[in-house]
Amino acid sequence: MLVRGKIIGEKVTAPFEILKTGDGISLRVELLGKPFEYSTGCSCLEPLELLGLLLPAIEEEIGEIKGVFVEEVVEEKRSPLEQLRGMLWGKHFIG
Predict the structure, then answer these.
(1) Cβ 5 vs Cβ 72: under 8 Å
(2) What is d(CA 58, CA 51) in angstroms, rounded to the nearest whole number?
(3) Does 93 score more than 50 pLDDT?
(4) Alpha helices, DSSP H only, in 1-95?
(5) What is the DSSP pairing of strand 65-74 with strand 2-9?
(6) Neighbouring C-alpha atoms within 13 Å toward the C-beta of 33
(7) 79 CB contacts (<8 Å, ≥6 apart)?
(8) pLDDT, tens digit, for every residue of 31-82?
(9) For the chain, is the Cβ count within 10 Å smaller at the N or the C terminus?
(10) What is the distance between the alpha carbons of residues 83 and 55, in angstroms, rounded to a whole number?
(11) Would you say residue 87 has pLDDT above 90?
């Protein structure tokens, strides 16, 4: 799953991108010309949950956060065979 959007702060608007795969989740936020990146090998969090956990660190860079806007969500499409294979291996996916 890929989630794109913007974080609106008092100083700046920062675009973000979160990619969640079966192998983990990664976040990238463009902060004043330098990227803020975080990734983990655990895919147990949903993309916006990860963003919510990291908002205090982002807020230190861009000032008070006025809002978070999701502009695009792209779900991973899997064939029925891949879905069955995932269920048999204990990974339940909807798609």
Answers:
(1) yes
(2) 9
(3) no
(4) 47-62, 80-88
(5) antiparallel
(6) 0
(7) none
(8) 887 899 999 998 888 999 999 999 999 998 888 999 999 999 988 766 666 6
(9) C
(10) 33
(11) no
